[in-house]
Amino acid sequence: MTDSGAEGKGFIDESWAKSQNLQFRPLKRPFEIEVFDGRPAESGQITHYVRAGLRIADHYQKNMLFYVTRLASYPIVLGMPWLKQHDPQVGFAAHTFTFNSPYCQKFCNTPAKPTKIKALQTVPKKFLRQLEQNIPQSLRRKDILPITLQAVRLYSRRTRCRFFTVTLEQIDRALQNKSEDLRLPEELREFQDVFSPKEAEKLPPHRAGDHHIELIPGGKLPFGPLYGMSREELTALREWLDENLRKGFIRPSSSPVASPVLFVKKPGGGLRFCVDYRALNNITVKDRYPLPLIKESLNNLSGMKYFSRIDIVSAFNNLRIEKGQEYLTAFRTRFGLYESLVMPFGLTGAPATFQRYINDALREHLDIFCTAYLDDILIYSRTREEHIEHLKLVLQRLRSAGLFANPSKCEFLVKETKFLGLIVGQEGIRMDPAKVETVKNWKTPTCLTDVQAFIGFGNFYRRFIRDFSKLTAPLNRLTNKDVPFIWDDTCEKAFVRLKEAFITAPILRPFDWTKDVILETDASDYVSAGVLSQYDNEGRLHPVAFFSKKHTATECNYEIYDKELMAIIRCFEEWRPELEGAPSPIRVITDHKNLEYFTTTKLLNRRQARWSEFLSRFNFQITYRPGKQGVKPDALTRRSEDLPKEGDERLAHQSQVVLKKENWQLPPLKVQRARIRQPHRQGSIPIEEPILSLELPEDISRLLDQAYKTDEDLQSILQA
Length: 720
Known about the structure:
Blueprint: E1 10-13, H1 14-19, E2 25-31, E3 46-56, E4 59-69, E5 76-78, H2 80-86, E6 89-91, E7 96-99, H3 102-107, E8 115-118, H4 127-133, H5 137-140, H6 149-155, H7 168-176, H8 197-200, H9 231-247, E9 250-252, E10 261-265, E11 271-275, H10 278-282, H11 294-298, E12 306-311, E13 331-333, E14 336-340, H12 350-362, E15 370-373, E16 376-381, H13 384-401, E17 411-414, E18 416-419, E19 422-425, E20 428-431, H14 437-440, H15 448-459, H16 468-478, H17 489-502, E21 518-523, E22 527-535, E23 541-550, H18 560-574, H19 576-579, E24 586-590, H20 606-615, E25 620-624, H21 631-636, H22 649-652, H23 669-677, H24 689-692, H25 698-710, H26 712-718
Parallel strand pairs: 1-4, 21-24, 24-25
Antiparallel strand pairs: 1-5, 2-3, 3-4, 6-7, 7-8, 9-14, 10-11, 12-16, 12-17, 13-14, 15-16, 18-19, 19-20, 21-22, 22-23
Helix pairs in contact: 15-16, 16-17, 18-20
Organism: Fusarium oxysporum f. sp. cepae
EC number: 2.7.7.49
Domain Reverse transcriptase: 245-424
C-alpha cells in the first residue's frame, strides 16, 4: 500500500518479514511513529530495520530499507519519501501506477520500458473507521480526547462530524459534572456511587478504624513557628482553608499544640498545602502494623487470566482522627489556628492505620481473589464471568467501608497490569524493566574515565561473577599507563557480558519483604543515583534495583545538601512499593554527613518541607559513609552520557547575575565621604574613629572613580 501521509520511506510488517526470513538489524536510535491524529502508534517504538529488494511487476529496486513495525492489513507500506523519489504517474480512473520517472528509468525499470501496474484493490472506505476503532481502551474511556489540526481537517470532510469551539475552562466544568459511569464496564454501573468524586468529599463518620495518636510519655508537645507567606501563598491558603472548612475536614481550634505550615510548588505548577508534623511524629509511638507480604500474595496469581486494579481516592482522608485527639493535629496559619478532623498526610502512623482498615474491609476475600497494599487493590480471576463477580464483591465491600475509587487511575478486565513495581499478567509475574534500565542502558565507554567508572561499579559484585578477572581483562588493559584508548570488539563483548551479569541472577535478586533493606544514594552536580540492596542468607549484599536520573537545569543550581537529599527522595519515589511499610528501619547510606540530622532540623525551606512530608511515610535511618567507600551509586552519577555537553541548558544557567543593575550603582567616593561627614541622627550609634580614616586625598579619590568607570567587569554587570 502507498501512503502519502507516511513520512518514512518504507515500512514492513514484523510477522510477514519473519515469514520471508529477512534479517533484522537494530537501529542505533529507535523512534516512535504517529497515527493520523497525532497519537503514538500502538505498535510502540521502531527498533529494527531490514534491507531487501522490492519488485512491482517489472519495476525493481534493490537493497531498499524498510522499518519493521506491526501493520494491520498490508505487509508493506510505502511512504511519501518513496513516492517523491520514484514519482509515479497515477491514473485515478483506471486505478493504475506508471513508473516512468528519470530515476526509475535509470535505476529501477527494464531498459527503455516504462512499468505500468494496476492496483489489485483500493483502500476500503471503512479503513479510517477501522483506525478509530484501534484506539487503546484507556483512551476510549475518556470523555473528551484532544486531536491534532491534521485530524480536524480530515474529520471536517465528513458530513456526520460537527465542530464547535470551547474553552479549557468550559471543558473542565463539563467534566466535573460528567457522570463517571462511561468509564466503567457495563456490568459495574450499579456501583457508580463508589466512583463519585462528590461522595469522596463528604466528611466520613467516626468508625472503629479511626486514627489513634499514642504519645511517648514525657514528650514535649510541639508548638511550631509561623512562617511568612507571599501574597500568592496567602491567597492559596485562604482558598484551601475555605474548601476544607466547607467539606468539614478541618475546624477552628484552641489547641496548645501547633505545627507549622507552608506551601510548596507542584511540579506541574500551582501550590500545595503542607503541614510539617515532624515534631509531633518524634513524640509519637510508632504503629508497627505490617503491610502485606506481596510475595506471598502474588503466589496466588498462577493461572489467572483477568486482572483489575482499583485506586482509592484521597485514601487517608477517608478516615477520621479519633474523637478527642483532633487537637494534636492543629496547625498555625496567618488566618488562625485549625485542626484536622480527618487523617491528614504526614502523620507517622497513617499508613499503618489505613492498611489495617482496608484489610478489615476486604478480609474475607484477601489472597483468594484480591490483595490490597494501602490504596492499591488488585483483583484477579480465571474467567471473565468469575472476574465480574469478584469485582462486584470488592466494590460492595468498599461501599460498605465508605471508601471511594478514582476511575481515571483504575484498570478493569485487562490481561496485564503493573502492581507495586511488578508486571503481573497471564504470562506470570516479572520484574519491571525500569528497575534495571539504568545499568542495561549504560552506553559504551568513550574515554578512560568511563571505563574506570564502570570497572569501579563492577568491582563490588566481582565475588558473584565467575571469572570476573578474565571478563574485565580487556577493560583493565585500557587503564594501564601509556596504553592508548582503543575500543575494539573484545572490549565491547566484555562490556556487554558484564552488563548482562549485573542485571541477572545470581547478582540481581527479587525484592524480599521479609529482609532488611539497604539504600545507597549519591548525587553529583548533574545526576542523582541509588542502589537498593538486601542481604542473602549467607550475609552477602545483593542488589535489587538500580536508579539514576539527570538533574534539570534548575536542579543543577541546588546546594549540594539539597542535591544529596534529592537523591534520597528520588529513590524513595522510585521504589515506594518496596520501601513503604518496611518492617524494620531502612538504612539509607549517604556521603553527606549533615543529612544525618535532617529529621531533627527545625528550619526547612519549602522544597525540604515538601520532601519531609513525603518521607514521613517511611521508616528509615540516614547513615553517613565517606564518599570514597560509596563506589556503586557514585559510579552511576559519573557516566559521560549523563554529563552536560556544550550547549546543554544545565550549563547555561549555572552562572547567573541575580542582582539587578540598580543594586550595583555605586556613588562616587566624594559622595560617600559627604555622607560620612553628615552629623549623626539623634539616638544613632556614633561612627568609630577608625572608619573616619576612609578620608582620602582628592587625587586618589579621582583615580578610584576613574577606575570604577574603566573596569570592564563592573561595567558589564551595571549594563546587564
